[in-house]
Amino acid sequence: MDTRAESRTSTRRLARAAVLGVLPALAGCAGGAPSALDPAGTGAGRVADLWWVLFWISMAVFAEVMLVLAWALVFRRRRDARVRHGQPLRFVTIAGAGIPLVVLVTVYALGLRDLAALGDGPGPRATTIEVTGHKWWWEVRVAGVAGATANELHIPVGEKVRIRLRTADVLHSFWVPQLMPKTDLIAGEVRETWLRAERAGTYRGQCAEYCGTQHAHMALLVVAEARSDFDAWRARLGAPAAQPQTDAQRRGQQTFAQGTCAGCHAIRGTEAAGRVGPDLSDVGSRWSIGAGAVPNDGGHLGGWIANSQTVKPGNYMPPQPVAAERLPDLIAYLQSLK
Ligand code: CUA
Fold this sequence. Notes:
By secondary structure, the chain is of the alpha+beta class. The chain has 3 domains: 3-118, no CATH class; 128-238, Immunoglobulin-like, CATH 2.60.40; 247-335, Immunoglobulin-like, CATH 2.60.40.420. Helix content is 42%, strand content 18%. The strands form 3 sheets. It has a 5-stranded mixed beta sheet. It has a 5-stranded mixed beta sheet with strand order 4-10-9-6-7. The longest helix is centred in the N-terminal third of the chain and has 33 residues, at 42-74. It is elongated.
């Protein structure tokens, strides 16, 4: 094989590898994962529009560079009068300085416009949700309401909701790709962002700043719903937790209160008032256990209580000495808290 044929083959291989590498990535975007390119809110919509502008500008610049490269390769040996004296300087001025200047100034102006739009938060009467980052879960409260929940927050559709962010320990970052870009949680500071969902649905959020071993298992769910449903959720946050209805649930409640659980966790309306771990008053209705670590069902709940270190190594909950015969009751009780 001569050198040219060899080079053609390796170019083809390279192009094939590039296409095969890119396709699954594009498929991933379309497959229901929380993509910033599938915006459902005003803030993320701005970012997605800017992203596409940058994408098409990059494509245009890439095409232009490739064309110029091709032109240079085709005409490289014709060092005749085609390029007259004086032309190179004009070419460099226009293509090397003029066009990039126009492109960069345009992108800068668009960026400033979107930055201003993202900074335009909700008014003083807007609903405020207080989110505190912990290693490795999110504490969620509604301003003016006593109760707390974890790793799940509700917002009314079509309204700007203020999100007030604090961290209890290290740096975290609050990110709901389909609704709003990231906001860092910085120790000693109160940061603010806002969310506005244009359509009802659930949107997954994720801590976007490395914060230790279980950074990846620090997810949250934003539920955008009708105003009346949001009001009901807020009312539940302020009310005592559900009372046990069956004997098993009552035995489970006793196990919870008398064991080590209540030292770290709170359940509204009971004596359990621990503040170390998440408030469990509505744990039965949550979308996951361990901030996205495992699904919320009886099996995973039991496994988590017995030894959460096998599920989410490094988290602050030690293995619990709950007798095997008491575990089903405890699970039944916790699952009834909705
Ligand atoms: Cu919290 Cu990463």
